[in-house]
Design goal:
- The structure holds two protein chains of two kinds.
- In chain A, about 40% of the residues lie in helices and about 25% in strands.
- A three-stranded antiparallel sheet of chain A has the order 1-2-3.
- Chain A contains four helices and three strands; from the N terminus they run ααβββαα.
- In chain A, helix 1 (about 5-20) runs antiparallel to helix 3 (about 85-100).
- By secondary structure, chain A is of the alpha+beta class.
- Chain A is elongated.
- Chain A starts with 6 loop residues before the first helix and ends in a 14-residue tail after the last helix.
- Chain A has one domain.
- Chain B is α/β, with parallel strands linked by helices.
- Chain B has six helices and nine strands, in the order ααβαβαβαβββαβββ.
- Chain B has helices spanning about 10, 20-35, 55-60, 80-85, 105-110, 160-165; strands spanning about 40, 70, 100-105, 125-130, 140-145, 150-155, 175-180, 180-185, 190.
- Chain B has a six-stranded mixed sheet with strand order 1-8-7-4-3-2. Chain B has a three-stranded antiparallel sheet with strand order 6-5-9.
- Chain B starts with 7 loop residues before the first helix and ends with a strand.
- The chains are: A alpha+beta, B alpha/beta.
- The interface of A and B includes residues 4, 6, 36, 41 and 69 of A.
Amino acid sequence: MTPDPNTDRKAWMAVLAKASPSRLAALLPDLPDHTLLRPAEVGAVMLRGRAGGTGAAFNLGEMTVTRCSLRLATGEVGHAYVQGRDRTHALQAAAVDALMQTAHAPDIRARILTPLATEAEAARTLRASKAAATKVDFFTLMRGEDA
Amino acid sequence: MNAPALPDAALTGGFASPPTQSARAFRAVLDAMARPGTLHTVTGALPPAPLSVAAGVAILTLVDGTTPLHLAGPADCAAVRDWIAFHTGAPLVSAEAATFALGTWSDLHPVARFAIGLPDYPDRSATLIVEMDALTAEGATLTGPGIADSAHLSLPETAAFQTNRALFPLGFDCLFTCGTQIAGLPRSTRVEAV
């Protein structure tokens, strides 16, 4: 199997898709010059899952997503599918995706993607630690009649 | 697994304001079908050659991921395939499996291979989007539902449409496109050569 050349892009698109719209707006206050290829539109996608990761596929439920495609004045094309129905979020995510293909990529990564990813990781850890605190370990003592 | 990036031309030419433009285009297509022989002007799409603007508008308005599309003749080129993939996501299929077909009249022949529906489900039929060199309100005489007395339309032939009318309530429906003009010919219309 050849390595997926899009691994990096998938990673930053995932970060943008799950980011909070207000946080992304604060990190990217000004959009670069662009033309819209596909104006932001709201739709639904069916999420599918597999029991245990290996069982038969089943429909988990529908999720609201917003997608957008744009092209920068310099020619790079950016796409975005984000969760929720915030059109500005989709527009900004598409702009970041396009900017990550330009020479500004290291700057954009340091200024936008890394803070978003760090915050998402922190939120996940906090939630996991709160859940872990409620964990109960069950164990069985030897019962009399088994002796 | 990784599809190559779509060429630039495939990404442009969609509706700039999809909600209003697609609603207006749908109304125009509806009027064209409801009043056979009338010509309607539609704009907003800029599909790649050899598609006309009206054919592009019809595709953007009527076709989506749930409607298999057949491309016939020169319309079946990489530029058109990519444009349709980005803007509609429609699966491209053979003529027999299609709910929409796009091409010139000679490319679509033989038209008997398109779905005409089932007696219980006459709606499971194909709609042909026929690209025309010229489209005018003169030529073959049309009579039937939606036409007060009679109407005229520059049809590419009459025999195929008479055969199709004889199948009623089964049969395919046609949209004729040329430039920004669109006209309709539902299966219910009787066609006579002048």
